[in-house]
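Table S2 (text version). Query chain:
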Amino acid sequence: MRIRITAAAAAAAGLAFAIGPMPDSTGEALAISAAFPGSTADGDCAVLAPGASAAAENAVRAACSQIGVWYTWGGGHGDQPGATYGHPDGVDPASDHDAERLGFDCSGLVRYAYAQAVGQDILGGSADDQFYTVHAAQRFTPDQGLGPLLPGDLIAYGNAADLHHIAVYLGAGKMVEARESGTHIMVNDVRLGGDLFGVVRINPGPVQGQVFSTWGTGVWSHTQPAMDSARVHAFPGPATVRVGCQKHAQSVTAEGITNDAWSFLPDYRAWVTNIYVQGGAWLDGVPACS
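Corresponding structure-token output:
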């Protein structure tokens, strides 16, 4: 999440943001806490509740090991999981120095945490890719609250067209996150309400079901196998998806192709025309929906 705090607003609030690397200090912790109530710069980052899998607990510990590392836009998305130098986002003045900062953005941190936990890079990509990962074990909606959550669950913010932030749940209402330029990785209270989109629990084991790739940009999935049904999620670009089954339904013409086959995507609880699924007009190995 990118909360804008201008220099003028920071000064008015009595906040101090350094341009260069900020040493660990009580003053820095107080500045972060003042800007983001409920946050801590270096405390209480641990597995704070029982019940999570060993992999999820290890992911929490890996994320917590990066407390104090810079948030940097685009950081953590190198060839291998780990901190990288970022780059300015072109919008937030606080990101102008991200090219000088070795660190992570929100999804870069999540990628690193689970790669360290399970020994392989299973959650590369954006917050959107990570929430809809084929490694999902279970998902939770905002109206379910914090009750069913376990440490290591991933908390996503945004909307159906753009999931823009993701964090790692610790338990006890806390999460560790790379929040925005000009700050370090920190622990915060989970922000309920607002644009909280949902939570996903990760299963790092073998993927269940048939996996395919979509293509195109701005492609919407739908509640029913019909273009005039309600939209569920927009794929900003190519994505890896699980296909549960397929069926013949509304005929669609797009990209110079006509096809009446639709695929059901269980991770999205939605349908997408097979025009935008790589693998043919009718996908080999995928059963027909009953």
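Notes on Table S2: The CA atoms of residues 4 and 92 lie 7 Å apart. Residues 106-118 form the longest helix (13 residues).
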